[in-house]
């Protein structure tokens, strides 16, 4: 099992070039094919404004969007040459970003998306974009932080384990990375032993499962008292020197709105290392 087809979301945000470099290094490390995809969103001009501004203005704006897409394509190609990655392709698709990415992601092993920097007004997707893709695509999403540099193969992975379906999916999706990591810590927070989930010793059953996949793990059952669980997880990741977090994406679609769990949202806002999400 490995990552052989990687999809990276390419946008206008300030960290896009760093995200492309990370994706190229990731593809090289795994011997994977890399697809860069940019979604050209619909031009939203109210009908009354179209009538006032005229068709020339609308055509000019659409032309500008296509020119910017071509600029991104050139930047992507330059990065591929710089990294010496032969197996790559570029896609520019019109539509709503999370819907387009969700469809294309179904033919990839992993999606790489960016954490939203709320001080950056150049992005064309919202802060919830990675979670929406994780909830709808049926594929894992590695969220690349808006600050810092990271190796494509993590040395120390923290697995957030609560014995849920989502966490189980995340562990399975992350197996290739876990097998190549030097260290894996299975972290359970405020877990209670039960026959229906965690077992007698929270995390120990998962450690045994991973051992059969040749993953060496350490189990850490922690109590978070008077602190948000998301903040606690990020604090422990920093204390342990983890350079990737694996966790389930908790939420559900409600019509066109996505409702996310508090822990997922908190970690997405404050993460300092890549986070692999699965649903």
Please describe the structure with a list of short key phrases separated by commas or semicolons.
279 residues; alpha/beta; 10 helices; ten-stranded mixed β-sheet
Describe this structure in words.
The chain is α/β, with parallel strands linked by helices. It is 41% helix and 23% strand. It has helices spanning 16-30, 47-53, 55-83, 97-105, 129-137, 165-173, 175-180, 204-211, 229-240, 262-270; strands spanning 5-9, 33-40, 88-94, 110-114, 141-144, 156-160, 183-189, 217-222, 244-248, 251-254, 257-260, 275-278. Helix 1 crosses helix 3 (55-83), helix 4 (97-105) packs across helix 5 and helix 9 packs across helix 10 (262-270). It is globular and about 70 Å long. The mean pLDDT is 88.
Termini separation comes to 19 Å
What order do the helices and strands follow?
Answer: EHEHHEHEHEEHHEHEHEEEHE
Any idea what the shape is?
globular
The total beta strand count reads 12
Mean pLDDT: 88
Brief synopsis:
The protein has 279 residues and is of the alpha/beta class.
Reconstruct the topology from this structure.
Blueprint: E1 5-9, H1 16-30, E2 33-40, H2 47-53, H3 55-83, E3 88-94, H4 97-105, E4 110-114, H5 129-137, E5 141-144, E6 156-160, H6 165-173, H7 175-180, E7 183-189, H8 204-211, E8 217-222, H9 229-240, E9 244-248, E10 251-254, E11 257-260, H10 262-270, E12 275-278
Parallel strand pairs: 1-2, 1-4, 2-3, 4-5, 6-7, 6-9, 7-8, 9-12
Antiparallel strand pairs: 5-12, 10-11
